[in-house]
Design brief:
The structure is a single chain. The chain has 18 helices and no strands. By secondary structure, the protein is mainly α. The chain is elongated, with a radius of gyration of 33 Å.
Length: about 350
Amino acid sequence: MSTFVELEIQNLLNETSDLDEVASRLISTLDSSPEQISLDNINALARFLNLSGRHLQLAEFVLKHIDNETFPVPWPFFIEALGHASLDLDDKVIEALIEGIRESESENEAARSQALNSRSPLLGEWRSNRKYRIHKDFLSNKKNLLDQLITLRTQQLYEQEKVLLERLQKLYPGDSDVSNEVREHRQRHALEILARRSPRARDPKPEELSPKDPEVEKVMLILLQNLRDHAEQDPDMAFDFAIAAFMLEGYETALDILQFCDISESLLWFRLEVLLQCRRFIELLNEISHVELALAHEPETFFATAYLRAQAMWGIGQKHTAVEILEGLLASRPHYRAGSALLSIWSGQ
C-alpha cells in the first residue's frame, strides 16, 4: 500500500469508524488531488475498497475516470468489484471491458482476478496463460539460482554459497531440490574442512610418526568400538557415527560403520573420502567409477571425482598420471585452491 493512501486511511479511521464515510472521503481526497493519481495510490485505494466490501464505490470511481487516458485503471481490483457489486453486466459491457484491457495491454494484470471468468472465456484463458508463465518463471528462476550455486561451489566460495542457499530456502520453502542442496552443502563443507589439512598428513613418512600414548590409544579404541556398536543398533544414526569416527581419525571404523547406512549421494561422496584416508586406493578408483555413473546427471560430479582420482593414482605410485589429472582439473577450475596446493606439494617431491 502506498504511504500516502495508508496515512490517509489511518487519519480517517482515527476520526470515524464509519467505513462508508472513510471510503467517500478517501475518494474525494484523490479526486481533488490530481497529482496523487498514481498507479500505487489507485491500487491502494482499490484494495481498501474491495477488502472493506465497498465494491460498488470502487466500480463507480473507476467508471468516472475510465475515459481519461492517463488514469491508471486497477484492472484486477476493478474486475473483482464488478463481480461482487451486483451490477447488471450485459455482453456489451463485458466486450467493452475486454477491449479496454487489450488497449492498455493489461491482460496479465486483469488475469489476477477470476471474478468474471464465467462471463468471458477469454478472461479464463488469460488467467491460465498467466499461471503458466508464473510456473515457467518459477522453474526458470530456480534453475538459474541452482546454476549459480554450482558455480560458487566449484570455486570453493563457501560463504557466498551459504547466502544463496538461504535465499533459495526463502524463495522455495519445502522444495526437495533445495533441501537436497542444503544437505549436500553441509556435508561437503565438513569434508572440505577435512580435505584442507595438509596432504602430507595423508602420506606420512615413517620418521614423521611420533609414538602415541598407549592409554590414549586404548581409550580411543574403546570409543571407536562404541561408535560402531551404536551404529549397528541404531542405523538411522549410523551416518553421524561414521562422521564422528572419521573426525577421530578412526578411518577403518568409519568405513565399517558405513555398511549400516542407507544409500544416498552424501554417503557415496563420504565413502570415497573415507577410502582415501584408509589408503585403499584401488578400491577407491573402482568406487569412483561407480559414483560417476550413478551421479552423471550432476554437473560437478566429474570435477569432484577428478580430484579424488588424482590422489588415488598418486597413492598407487602412478604419479605422472596423478599430476596430469590434477593439471587438467586446474585448467578448467583455476581457482580450486585445494587442487593448487596439492599440485604444489607434489611438484616439490
